[in-house]
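User: Could you walk me through two proteins back to back? I'd like the raw sequence and the structure tokens for each, with a short line separating them so I can tell where one ends and the next begins.

Assistant: Of course. Protein one, sequence then structure:
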Amino acid sequence: MKPHRTKYWLNHKAEDEATFRQEVRDVCKLYHQAQELHESGVHVISVDEKTGIQALERIHPDHPMSKGKLELHEFEYKRHGTQTLIANFEVATGKSCVQRWATPEQKTILWPISRRPSLLTPRQNGYLLPTN
């Protein structure tokens, strides 16, 4: 037995390896051409989201570190539901836009972009590159 060796079983591999490789090439090409595309008015935006972030509050205040003693945290906390975080990164400029909210059902992955009208106007083109 070799308990240190594992194998993923839930997430399947790409059904068509050639198609997968071409998609990877396309995404890499967009990243490589991001500056050139930006100069012609096309935005390349990398998007990532994190859902279900626990919003916790410590019930008791921390005790600060002092000489010879560690900072102390109480383990008890109060729950305030969950939060969703979405970050958009414009590849060519390095500008980022981060939004969080408590009710993910009301928002979509495009919501932070819609809150930045200077990023994409109706006449501009762009590519959204969601991360896994």
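----
Protein two, same layout:
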Amino acid sequence: MLSYKDILYSFTKELGNNFNEDIFVEGYNIQDNKKSCFFVQILPEVAQTATKKTDIKSFLVDIKYLPDWKKKKTDLFDILNKLENIFTRNIKVKDRYLTFSKKNGSIEKDEIGNYVQFLISINYHEQIYFEEEKHELMEELNMRFKGRSD
């Protein structure tokens, strides 16, 4: 069974292998960081029942690239292209590969400035493990039949 922490680790590891910027997954506060950085979070969505023993889990990976003040908007297009090349079709998480169902990259603007937002939607099947109920075996069964005796 995959945990969200395992999935988050795989995405941050991939970013760390391809970029030199700091990567944050919690305690995010843009005012505290003066240089370019990434902020990565997982947003769980609805889990649906597929079969008696499997669920379809859905979640969104939100990758934000927050540039330092020296970066131009045109530099952000390079970052966006690089993210699209890194995260093409799937990602390895432990012993499984999760396939991307949808990707959306954009350059957004807020009150502080421009930033890159890269969203990846993932759906995958997860096996559900149930604890087996243990019952004592029946040792003896006494039965009486009433009816006609010819």
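The chain has a mean pLDDT of 89.

Let me know if you want the two compared in more detail.
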